[in-house]
Amino acid sequence: MKPLKLFAVKALIVSLLSSIYIQAQAQSRWSVAPTTSLVKWHPSYYFNQSGQSVPDPTYGYSVGVMGQYQLSPKWSLSSGVAHLSIKLDGDGSNFLRNNYLQVPLYINLRPSLKRLSPYLTAGISWISHQRLKAFTKEDGHVRELPLDGVLTKFNYKRVYGVVGVGASYRLNNHFSITAQPIFSYKFRKEQFDVNNSDRYTVSLQAQLVYTF
Which UniProt keywords apply (predicted)? Predict the structure, then answer.
């Protein structure tokens, strides 16, 4: 009877350890990644004092967080939310800043299981305008200008196709770093958009990935 009880205890311990291991493996499929990007939005236009449409260099940044699910050792899906801010220089000391909500959905490939690997991304990014702000530079200081009576939120919702090629470096079992140039292209041109502005963006994205 005692050998039977001992066998049952051992079987229970093995079962519990197996369950813990399986749960740990399942949990390791999930990652979270604070994400930041430097963005070049091209081309964008503004109207000068003569009423002419002039190309305007537009640069900005985005900050957000991404969640990632590991489909296999090499493939993963990721999505999240980010705040995208684009600066329009305009004329003189005044400039505008457009703020957007960005929701990406990517599929990623890390073709090598080594510590350092290429990292490829493809997918879509949905962008929605949130608010327009105006600023002026005075004596080296930047001050926000009131926009009374001016439309500050536009019905701007766009979908961009996204591709990226970069690198991923695994620091340890929980942390890794990814960096990659990202190219985004707007799927559809609006009829009123004569210049086809904002048709593509180029950005440099960096992530600190934490795997549970």
Answer: Signal
